[in-house]
Amino acid sequence: MKPFPIAPTRRHFLKGAGVSLTLPFLESLDAEEEVASARRMVFVSTGLGMNPATFFPNEFGADFTASPVLPAMMEHRGDFTLFSHMDHPNIFNKHGGIKSLLNGVQNDNSKPGENVSIDQVAATHLGYTTRFPSLHISLGGAENASYTPSGIRLRQETSPHALFQKLFVADSAAASKARALELKEQGSVLDLIRTQARRLESGVSRADRNKLEEYLTAIREAEERLQGIRRWQNIDKPEVGDDEYDPRAHGDGSMDYGFLGPIMFDLLALALQSDSSRIITANFGMHNHVIELDGVSTGYHSLSHHGKRESQLRQLQIIETFYITQLSRFIAKLKASNTVGGSLFDDTMVFFGSGISDASRHSNRNLPIILAGGGLKHQGHYDAVQHNGRQTPLNNLFTTMLQNFGIETEAFNGATGDLNHVLGGRA
Question: Which of 20, 194, 205, 212 satisfies CB 3.0 to 4.6 Å to 241 for a cystine?
Answer without folding.
Answer: 20
